[in-house]
Specification:
- By secondary structure, this protein is of the alpha/beta class.
- Helix content is about 30%, strand content about 25%.
- It has a nine-stranded mixed sheet with strand order 5-4-1-8-9-10-11-12-13, with helices on both faces.
- Strand 6 and strand 7 form a beta hairpin.
- The longest helix is centred in the middle third of the chain and has 17 residues.
- It is globular, with a radius of gyration of 18 Å.
Length: about 300
């Protein structure tokens, strides 16, 4: 990883231990299903930081919260990807864990069982204005909006970024959690965000529209730049109430779709840092997403 001349990207978000179970036959309730099971580093925020660092061109930093049980392991894994971690150790909660159940047939779709643990216990006391020193972009994981302490941290970080003129991006993270939070509440919480990177399902949920292009266009009336990730259908770039670009996906055979959206976001942000326009940055995001789905887990290869 090389440090870009214009400053660093700071990612604030979840650091999670992923247990990835890949099965080749349908799950058999009440008995055994043969699977390949691996324990891997994950978390949407951490994955985005790793892919941004992997894509190169800028220094990438990460603020997250973990339990004492796994802090050293996660620090090593992040550093191996070229990320500068600042992990707060929670005195009570263990590191968050996600069980990813991946059907290796067809599109390698996955189902998550999530115990957020320490990751959503980030709070304003973990934030400092000095975290933005040398930072030219701030990215927030949407998972931070799903607990009261981390919502308060988001508000503090947004206020600091606005005061310094640092643009902020956010990935909504989970359509399931969004339904619980509520659309109106989400849109109020992301007031002031410059870039929104929803999945197709999240964009449609946030607007009540069934067409992804219409949804992205509508969202871009609330947020200046919206990039809707559509998996095998590529990505949509929307600004000022209209879709400005449709970027095709890179065709590949997926092995595990875990972290594909995070890979897109990381590469997209890395490209913006090097001066790319949104459409070109989205092309980089699609390239990273294609690489991600050919790997098990949500991270890129470790840095050399």
């Amino acid at each position: 990883m090389t440090t870009g001349p214009d400053g660093a990207l700071l990612v604030v978000g979840d650091v999670i231990t992923d247990v990835v179970a890949r099965h080749r036959v349908p799950l058999a309730p009440g008995t055994d299903t043969a699977s390949s099971i691996r324990t891997l580093p994950g978390g949407a925020g951490a994955n985005v930081a790793c892919w941004a660092a992997h894509w190169g061109g800028a220094e990438v930093r990460l603020l997250g919260r973990v339990g004492a049980d796994a802090v050293a392991w996660h620090e090593r894994q992040l550093a191996a990807c070229g990320v500068r971690p600042r992990l707060v150790v929670d005195p009570e909660a263990p590191t968050g864990t996600v069980i990813c159940v991946v059907d290796t047939e067809a599109a390698a779709e996955r189902t998550f069982l999530t115990d957020s643990g320490a990751s959503l216990r980030l709070d304003p006391d973990d934030w400092s204005e000095s975290l933005l020193d040398g930072v030219v972009r701030l990215h927030l994981s949407g998972y931070l909006l799903f607990s009261e302490p981390s919502r308060a941290l988001v508000a503090a970080a947004l206020a600091s970024a606005r005061a310094r003129g640092v643009p902020v991006s956010l990935d909504p993270a989970s359509s399931g959690f969004l339904k619980t939070l509520g659309v109106d509440r989400f849109l109020a919480l992301v007031e002031g965000v410059d870039v929104l990177l929803p999945s197709r399902d999240e964009a449609c949920l946030l607007t009540g529209l069934s067409d992804a292009a219409d949804a992205a266009a509508k969202l871009s009336r609330h947020v200046p730049l919206v990039v809707a990730k559509q998996g095998a259908d590529g990505a949509l770039v929307a600004q000022s109430g209209a879709v400005s670009a449709r970027v095709p996906a890179v065709p590949v055979t997926p092995q595990d779709t875990t972290g594909a959206g995070d890979a897109f976001t990381g590469a997209f942000l890395a490209a913006l840092l090097t001066g790319a326009a949104p459409e070109e940055a989205a092309r980089e995001g699609c390239r990273a997403g294609a690489l991600a789905v050919q790997r098990v887990g949500g991270r890129p290869p470790a840095a050399d």
